[in-house]
Amino acid sequence: MSTQNLTLVQAVRDGLYTEMKQDDDVLVMGEDVGKNGGVFRATEGLYNEFGDDRVIDTPLAESGIVGTAIGMAAYGLKPVPEMQFSGFMYPAFDQIVSHAARLRNRSRGRFTCPLVVRAPYGGGIRAPEHHSESKEAFYAHEAGLKVVIPSTPYDTKGLLISAIRDPDPVIFLEPKLIYRAFRGEVPEEDYTVPLGEAAVRREGTDISVFTYGAMSRPTQEAAENLSEEGIDVEVVDLRTVSPLDEAAIVESFKKTGRAAVVHEAPRKGGLAGEITAVIQEEALLYQEAPVERITGFDVPFPLYALEDYYLPSVARIEEGIRNAVEF
Length: 327
Prior knowledge:
Protein name: Pyruvate dehydrogenase E1 component beta subunit
Largest sheet: 5 strands, mixed
Number of strands: 14
CATH topology of the largest domain: Rossmann fold
Pfam families: Transket_pyr (PF02779), Transketolase_C (PF02780)
Domain Transketolase-like pyrimidine-binding: 6-181
Low-confidence stretches: none
Keywords: Oxidoreductase, Pyruvate, Thiamine pyrophosphate
GO biological process, one term: sulfur compound biosynthetic process
């Protein structure tokens, strides 16, 4: 199997190219996705390869972009609209939750909505307001939507292809902090990573730490550091936050009896609470300590240097894991 050494954002582009090459129904649309190749160059070169009828530059109108894409999807196409930043998705929220998520149910299965809304998401790049939010819980709460957050180039391409092939709408959130932070081997050919399946990044016996997106790497770094203190940490990368891989969460927790959840979204109403509830409902008798939530804070996302205090750092993750292990 021949591979290429890609960054995460290059893997996004490769996934789009792979599906567009083999399926004429797949198209890309959004602000500056055509000749400019997107604000992060995730669609670079696709305009020249596939033309302006499949790589469509749109007006700056998120509701219109997603609304048009829903119509295309109902017709039988497979649109992949890009939101320049996830914080710009709010004008399209009505289209996503009132129409895309409900189309199958509303039509009693006569129509589906094979739509993937892509968006760079998360903080850490010193961006202005509305550029750094982590609001995945908004979409995970909505029946009818799948929500995917990759953390490696390999998973990014495979999950994106799976999302495009899915008959129902998928919110595909790309952690822009790690767009170009590292490279990974990615097969040149077509492959898929199943939606709804977590990946164990590190085996351990003392505590299970559940995470996703850009927080996967600092969590793994914290786990390696704590191994020098004799704490054996299992790291589970959820990859898809809706549907959650509840079986993987329970299986890991039953092995360790302790858990922590790491995400950059705010603590209140965050997915850490849902993961904790799964543990309580399915594995309570295995529990040795309270579940530790290591998250962002319940404040508006701060600007510039304060980001370093808001985002869970390696040191803060280590402290939270120690709290759970030493309880």
